[in-house]
Amino acid sequence: MSKKIRVRFAPSPTGGLHLGGVRTVLYNYLFARQHLGDFILRIEDTDQSRFVPGAEEYIMDCLRWCGLEPDESPLTGGNYGPYRQSERKANYRAYAEKLVADGHAYYAFDTPEELEKMREDFRTTENPSPQYDHRLRQQMKNSLRLSKDEVAKLLSDGVPHVIRIKMPADQTLRFTDLIRGEVEFNTGHVDDKVLLKQDGMPTYHLAVVVDDYLMQITHAFRGEEWLPSAPVHVLLWDYLGWKDSMPQWAHLPLILKPDGNGKLSKRDGDRLGFPVFAMNWTDPKTGETTTGFRERGFLPEAFVNMLAMLGWNDGTGKEIFSLEELVQAFSLERVHKGGAKFDFEKAKWFNHEWIKAATPDRLLPDVKAVLSQQGFEANDDDYTKKVIALVKDRCTFTTDFAEQAGFFFKTPAAPDMQAVAGKWTAEKTHFFNELMNKLPASKDAAAVEQIFKDLATAHNIKVGELQLPFRLMLVGGKFGPAVFEIAAMLGAEETGKRIRQGLQALA
RNA sequence: GGCGCGUUGGUCAAUCGGUUAAGACGCUUCCCUUUCACGGAAGAAUGACGGGUUCGAUUCCCGUACGCGCUACCA
């Protein structure tokens, strides 16, 4: 029996939850479910200066909306808590000290100003960003260069310091990435990352390995931007004596902006007019709200489906997947290596497909919310569901229901009859006057159509000549389902009322 | 600059040495429909470049170019 699969999503609560973040969650979730493992949410809030109130709750709300709820989290708890790194603070120092004791790390007393000075002093055209590495550390203020007594004094004086990893000067490090295969680094090219900050909090580098170890994480998925620091983490697993427990790494490709190149950012969404966050996010500092996919009118099924396909496919050409189907079909081997440009047109297509395929029952709550938000009263669920069935094919977003279905709930104000006014005749007026009185009591579209056509023949007018005006009267515009369906749904009374109104507009 | 990762149509992408190089989005045209859609049909459009390896490379290897990422006491 092999170890139970455990994966984790470890966001830092600093703002809205980005598309790419949700995709990372999704791949974690799919992998865990597929292997009957655990999916953990761990909050990486070690940077107290970047703490944003509400962000953690927001992240959990997003996961709930997407249907990707963790088995263990700050909210649900679990056997490996706490699930906020700020609450695990006491853990980290000892591990950092152990690394120092074992000669794999050291104390560094350099102040921010000194570090800044170092970067300036050593900056050249060839080396625009000098690193605190095996070459430079001998010139800095740390326990490697200072004498034992000096270090002891600084320590006992309580001089602020950090603990840095001591990267080997020249060692080839290899590890297998689940997506990229074998990856190779030379440790001499990596700087001596800070492990424990001056305030006693760990940096990501220390925290991620300590917590992954303590939480018995077996597979670690994260964005490709972490690849360059992977050697630090691999080394830490080794130095801490946990080499055999190290999770298998999988560095996911980035989601790129649609135009040009580079990582997709919130700004791109603002600039190009599409959401980047899962749900609306209001910055507590500025009060500024950024629209999310949910509020834009996306179904979570479509959002998740779309994200899954951004970097993965099952090889058969199938594109529409439910979450359950994704759990079955997903495989890391089929995750792309290269980044994918985000295409909002394709995202729209996914949503449209899901709306078309959804049952009126599924859509009802969303549609009612949209309708009431736009001032329409939809109190009769059976009626609303029929309306949904009639118009859902022409809705790309749930928000489209307001425009596509509003006329079923409210008489259009003064219809614009311009399009038919030019060819209007007295005979047509007679036709509609007569139609009003002959509409069937039953809500039967076929019956309405029959009466309409018979009457047209009696008045010697082509049916086609009358359909557009009829539509304009009922709908208020050149769109919507079949006119006779609309008339039947509206009922004789309301239909008559709208005909009268239309006739008035033509008079 | 250094290090790492990547590169099939405009975009997402299949192909695990041999195909007329799938499919989807978007676009164009047509059909259906006297509304808007949906649906159906068709079309334009792709292997960055140069070397190898091989009977045969989109596929394997090397180099070049290009792109991206990282290069913080942020994650």
Spell out the CATH superfamily of the largest domain: Glutamyl-tRNA Synthetase, Domain 3
CATH third-level topology of the largest domain: Glutamyl-tRNA Synthetase, domain 3
Biggest sheet, in brief?
Answer: 3 strands, antiparallel
Main sheet: strand order: 3-4-7
Mean pLDDT: 95
Inertia-based shape: elongated
Provide the structure class: mainly alpha
Question: Concise description?
Answer:
With about 500 residues, the chain is mainly alpha-helical. Helix content is about 45%, strand content about 10%.
Descriptive notes:
This protein has 507 residues and is mainly alpha-helical. The chain folds into 4 domains: 6-72 and 254-344, HUPs (Rossmann fold); 86-252, Glutamyl-tRNA Synthetase, domain 3; 359-408, Helicase, Ruva Protein, domain 3, CATH 1.10.8; 418-506, Arc Repressor Mutant, subunit A. Helix content is 44%, strand content 10%. The chain contains 20 helices and 13 strands. A 3-stranded antiparallel beta sheet has the order 3-4-7. The protein has a two-stranded parallel ribbon with strand order 1-2. A two-stranded antiparallel sheet has the order 5-6. The longest helix is centred in the last third of the chain and has 24 residues, at 483-506. The radius of gyration is 32 Å and the shape is elongated. The mean pLDDT is 95. The protein binds one RNA strand of 75 nucleotides through strand 6, strand 7, strand 13, helix 12 and helix 19.
Helix and strand topology:
Elements: E1 6-9, H1 19-34, E2 38-41, H2 55-66, H3 89-101, E3 105-108, H4 112-121, H5 148-156, E4 162-165, E5 172-177, E6 181-186, E7 194-196, H6 204-214, E8 219-223, H7 230-239, E9 248-252, E10 255-256, H8 266-272, E11 281-282, E12 289-290, H9 293-296, H10 300-309, H11 323-329, E13 340-341, H12 344-357, H13 360-373, H14 381-391, H15 400-405, H16 418-421, H17 426-438, H18 445-458, H19 463-475, H20 483-506
Helix pairs in contact: 1-11, 6-7, 10-12, 13-14, 17-18, 17-20, 18-20, 19-20
The structure holds one RNA strand of 75 nucleotides.
